[in-house]
User: Which sequence fits this backbone?
């Protein structure tokens, strides 16, 4: 039996709680419907939740001007408490307030979350905040580019929180700071080591967290950020499934608490690391593991890192005593192939054979090819979950986007290609311009606006099909470059194959399959592409087809070749490759994979 112990107190002595008492919820909820209101962004919803539950204690509201200025310049609230990151509520335009100055804060679906009594409105300068907090105004920094779109006024005032944002996923793991502390205290250890993560965890992470809790004689708070992370990160649904598998199967019972933190990350490097330490103290942790490039925003416009690799470790160490959170440096673990175990890189004997797999290799050499990750690198349970979420290329969706003049040969080639893909076992949807115009786009004409709408609708459907692993072939004139590029972004460039059917106008006109060119020449069809409306050739299409020199069948085969090269189709010899993890020696002597895992890599640690 464990004895209930006390873990470290919240920063500032007690946990802030902004939730109104249950018996006043109904009345205040009624009131909230009558007040002027604003809609919060996803980011502000996350911030509000962490304010409400005390994760940001002692901060108890979106910052007012004194706190804001002090945080920017000194990493402290106006009262001197450490607080390195601005938590503000930007608005474009404040609605007219009544004499009581009350304002309802709604979530993006308009559900009321809180009532703010507005005490301050002040302007801010995104450039200044970026420079001071992020140390850069480079738009490659994900927060810099986002901040440009935030409202130009900040509002602040006392908050009455009516309800926490509704979260339906992984309910048992969504623990408030108070709930997290109670779980930790039940484990009977005073020392709690927090591990912040936004990536799937591999064996190396498991080893280092195990060592950290052993060294501290403590327990682990496995505390993934599941609010906003970086575009391109592994989605949190997949990640949390892997964390659950690890926490259940690979840790001693009673040595770990897994809790999800609805944190909207800022990628502010060192300042963010310090913020993470403060947030974890409020959840009961008195240690935080800080690795290389903690909370890294990736590379800047010149391909250079925004922060020094160990800046985060240094800043957290500097504040460690005052904050009451020890910085545990993340020691890089490497796999010793001959001994079949992990060791800290600093303790590896000279000439020992080591192996590591980078995030890029995880994706390209294993998941994309349907090869199981070796078990020395990733637990089988984790590998299987990743494999489900990241199927091999030949099971991923793709979009073949034909573009070209009317009569160029888009539909004819698409028909042959469809048959060849079906023959290879892919499921295919064809979205032909002429056909789409009879249902999805019925009623649209050929003005620039209507044509763009038509193409965007096709693009929307194509993106959905691709996302769900289907093959989609689109054949529409799609004369405008910008619109085609928009569609490329909707589908995702990796899965979008633009095929320019490059048939000269005079050939198309000579073919005049539907008699339309003749009518256009007679002036009966205004704005006909190629005659009196422009066709903008693609600048960098993946494939260019000639229809005078090549038959539709030859062209369709060219596309099939391309798909084979890209891995979207499986070559005949490849079929028998399976996903089962092989436990042979081979696993332990992977071809010199010494490239380091990079934290900016979605599948890396
Ligand atoms: P689009 O879909 O681009 O408007 P279609 O495929 O409907 O064009 O029409 C192209 C016409 O050109 C068809 O009548 C087809 O038989 C003829 N054609 C001749 N050679 C080729 C070729 N190599 N590829 C595609 N179509 C060709
Ligand atoms: P988009 O929507 O990209 O213009 P679609 O492939 O959906 O292209 O529609 C083009 C087809 O509609 C042509 O193949 C042609 O048969 C017919 N059409 C009718 N009017 C026009 C026009 N003004 N310009 C181009 N195609 C037209």
Assistant:
């Amino acid at each position: 039996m464990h004895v209930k112990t006390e873990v470290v107190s919240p920063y500032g002595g007690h946990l802030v709680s902004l939730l109104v008492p249950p018996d006043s919820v109904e009345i205040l909820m009624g009131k909230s419907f009558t007040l002027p209101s604003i809609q919060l962004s996803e980011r502000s919803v996350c911030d509000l939740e962490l304010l409400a539950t005390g994760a940001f204690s002692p901060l108890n509201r979106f910052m007012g001007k004194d706190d804001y200025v002090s945080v920017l310049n000194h990493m402290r609230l106006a009262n001197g408490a450490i607080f390195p990151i601005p938590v503000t509520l930007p608005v474009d335009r404040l609605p007219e307030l009544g004499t009581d100055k009350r304002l309802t804060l709604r979530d993006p679906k308009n559900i009321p979350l809180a009532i703010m009594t507005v005490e301050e409105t002040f302007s801010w300068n995104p450039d200044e905040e970026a420079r001071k907090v992020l140390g850069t105004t480079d738009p490659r920094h994900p927060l810099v580019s986002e901040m440009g779109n935030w409202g130009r006024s900040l509002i602040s005032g006392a908050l009455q929180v009516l309800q926490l944002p509704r979260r339906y996923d992984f309910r048992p793991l969504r623990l408030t700071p108070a709930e997290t502390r109670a779980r930790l205290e039940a484990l009977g250890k005073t020392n709690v080591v927090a591990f912040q993560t936004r990536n799937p965890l591999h064996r190396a992470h498991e080893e280092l967290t195990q060592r950290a809790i052993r060294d501290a004689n403590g327990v682990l708070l496995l505390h993934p950020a599941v609010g906003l992370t970086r575009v391109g990160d592994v989605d949190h649904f997949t990640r949390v499934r892997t964390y659950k598998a690890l926490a259940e199967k690979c840790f001693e019972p009673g040595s770990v608490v897994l809790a999800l933190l609805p944190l909207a990350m800022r990628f502010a490097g060192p300042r963010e690391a310090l913020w993470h330490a403060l947030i974890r103290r409020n959840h009961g942790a008195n240690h935080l593991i800080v690795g290389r490039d903690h909370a890294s925003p990736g590379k800047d416009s010149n391909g250079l890192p925004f922060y020094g690799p160990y800046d985060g470790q240094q800043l957290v160490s500097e504040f460690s005593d005052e904050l009451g959170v020890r910085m545990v440096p993340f020691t890089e673990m490497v796999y010793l192939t001959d001994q079949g175990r992990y060791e800290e890189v600093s303790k590896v004997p000279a000439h020992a054979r080591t192996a590591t797999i980078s995030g890029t290799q995880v994706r390209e050499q294993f998941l994309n090819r349907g090869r199981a990750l070796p078990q020395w690198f990733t637990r089988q349970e984790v590998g299987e979950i990743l494999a489900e979420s990241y199927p091999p290329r030949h099971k991923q969706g793709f979009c073949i986007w034909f573009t070209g003049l009317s009569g160029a040969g888009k539909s004819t080639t698409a028909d042959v290609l469809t048959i060849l893909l079906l023959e290879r076992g892919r499921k295919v949807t064809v979205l032909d311009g002429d056909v789409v115009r009879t249902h999805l786009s019925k009623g649209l004409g050929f003005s620039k606006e209507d044509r763009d709408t038509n193409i965007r609708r096709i693009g929307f459907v194509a993106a959905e099909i691709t996302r769900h692993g289907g093959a989609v072939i689109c054949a529409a004139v799609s004369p405008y470059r910008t619109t085609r590029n928009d569609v490329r972004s909707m589908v995702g460039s990796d899965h979008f194959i633009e095929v320019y059917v490059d048939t000269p106008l005079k050939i198309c006109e000579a073919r005049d399959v539907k008699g339309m060119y003749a009518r256009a020449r007679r002036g009966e069809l205004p704005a006909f592409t190629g005659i009196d409306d422009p066709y903008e050739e693609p600048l960098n299409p993946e494939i260019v087809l000639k229809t005078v020199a090549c038959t539709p069948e030859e062209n369709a085969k060219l596309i099939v070749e391309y798909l084979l090269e890209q891995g979207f189709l499986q070559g005949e010899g490849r079929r028998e490759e399976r996903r089962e993890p092989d436990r042979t020696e081979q696993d332990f002597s992977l071809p010199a994979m010494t490239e380091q895992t990079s934290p900016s890599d979605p599948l890396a640690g």
The pocket of adenosine-5'-diphosphate (ligand 2) is lined by residues 406, 433-434, 437, 446, 451, 454-455, 476-479, 514, 516, 525, 527-529, 533 (CB under 6 Å). Residues 576-605 have pLDDT under 50 and may be disordered. The two ends are 35 Å apart (CA to CA). The longest strand covers residues 112-123.
